[in-house]
Design brief:
α2 runs parallel beside α4. It contains 13 helices and 13 strands. It is of the alpha/beta class and 409 residues long. It is globular and about 75 Å long. About 3% of the residues have low confidence. β6, α9 and β7 form a beta-alpha-beta unit. The longest helix has 17 residues. The termini are far apart. A 13-stranded mixed beta sheet has the order 1-2-3-4-5-6-7-8-9-10-11-12-13.
């Protein structure tokens, strides 16, 4: 045996080599053919992260391969009989090695997972799977097993135009049954309350991070979402609303959310300060330490920010860190706007804020007067341990900061 080949038999060295070839599928495939002694470990790396289901299609039993055909009638899916376990042997040999699935190709590629679980009912297709992007193109059957118990990160993508039947909530309920130790949850698309399910909390035992990225979100749907997850140990919560239409979430009047998320420590809201204030006011967690607001699409008044900052200042214990990202500020009274904005921060600072970071993109930012810029300097905020204010010109794409004062660790 050549000395060069001996290094592959030292497991620690082999692991280092393979970990550096994670994104080089061709090299991993070549290495898998070099020796039986290293092929098993190499195949684990080769199949660990999959961006497409197409490599699995030749491994499927012949009667099942037809569901990959573009001409396949989805209405016939319930009539497809599941072949015996022996017919799945080749598929299972490689599916066992898969840890992450993130299909990025066409409709068929994204739809295959849901089609397969509808055929092979009650069986974990990928028994060691840790992360999954699941596209919900078809209605779900309540109680049917969809996710492996090994799953730790789940991204649900309801099909945008047709999801009005609450399949995202139904999938969420099924995930709590199938994968109770889920740690990260992402819902991207349209979230709807399922008409035939209750609203009791789900038993996710380790769910610490939740991202809800919704095109349109009604008050009743966010209320349902909050209640479903109210018993989960969520520490990091991100809510991003893309739509500015009238049917978008309105959390005032009758759209009242219950106090919820009792363990949240960090919250990020991608929307205006008015809606951010409504959401924050419902967070009952005494551990809330960090708040991040990103509002780049529409103008917000200083009074709207003032209400948000007042709510944060009234919390006990006080918020530790605040980050605000503002975009496209267009006002004729630029200096007054900045002065008033800084004034709304003072109650929060006096309450004990430790870290403060603000990004402001303003039209005519170069006209800000020097006496206002002095208020943007760290020495003007002695009680804040870490202070940073970034001011850029909105009329110039990619412009360098006109003022970048302070520094965050």
């Amino acid at each position: 045996m050549d000395d060069f080949c001996r290094v592959f038999y030292i497991s620690e060295i082999l692991e280092v080599i393979l970990s550096n070839l994670t994104d080089d599928k061709r090299s991993l495939a070549y290495l898998a053919y070099t020796s039986k002694a290293v092929s098993g470990t190499t195949l684990d790396y080769l199949w660990a992260n999959m961006d497409s289901f197409s490599p699995f299609v030749p491994l499927l039993p012949k009667p099942v391969q037809e569901i990959w055909d573009v001409t396949f009638n989805i209405a016939l899916l319930p009539l497809v009989k599941c072949p015996p376990p022996a017919a799945w042997r080749r598929f299972d040999m490689y599916a066992y090695r898969v840890r992450r699935i993130r299909p990025r190709e066409d409709y068929l590629d994204r739809a295959l997972y849901q089609r397969l679980v509808s055929i092979r009912i009650g069986i974990d297709l990928f028994p060691r799977l840790l992360s999954l992007r699941c596209y919900l193109f078809n209605p779900l059957i309540p109680g049917m097993r969809i996710f492996p118990s090994s799953l730790r990160s789940l991204s649900l993508y309801p099909e945008y135009a047709l999801v009005l039947d609450g399949r995202a909530e139904l999938a969420l309920r099924q995930a709590a049954q199938d994968a109770p130790f889920l740690e990260q949850l992402y819902i991207i698309g349209i979230y709807r309350l399922h008409p035939e399910t209750g609203i009791g909390p789900l038993d996710f035992k380790r769910l610490h991070t939740v991202h809800l990225i919704a095109n349109i979100l009604r008050p009743v749907d966010l209320q349902s979402f909050s209640r479903l997850l109210s018993a989960s140990p969520i520490m990091n919560l991100c809510i991003s609303l893309r739509s500015s239409s009238e049917v978008s979430i309105q959390l005032d009047g009758t759209g009242v959310l219950p106090s919820t998320f009792p363990r949240v420590e960090n919250i990020s809201i991608c929307d205006g300060p008015r809606r951010a204030a409504d959401i924050v006011s419902r967070i009952c967690s005494p551990y809330l330490a960090s708040v991040r607001i990103e509002h780049r699409d529409r103008f917000a008044s200083v009074s709207e920010y003032g209400r948000l900052f007042t709510l944060l200042a009234q919390r006990h214990p006080p918020v530790y860190a605040l980050e605000v990202r503002m975009g496209r500020v267009y006002v004729n009274t630029r200096n007054e706007y900045v002065r008033e904005f800084l004034a709304t921060l003072e109650p929060l600072v006096h309450a004990g804020l430790v870290k403060l970071r603000v990004e402001m993109s303003m039209y005519g930012a170069w006209k800000i007067e020097e006496d206002v810029k002095k208020r943007l300097r760290p020495e003007a905020w002695p009680s804040v341990s870490y202070f940073e204010f970034v001011l850029t010109e909105a009329s110039v794409v990619g412009s360098l900061p006109l003022a970048h004062l302070g520094d965050m660790p």
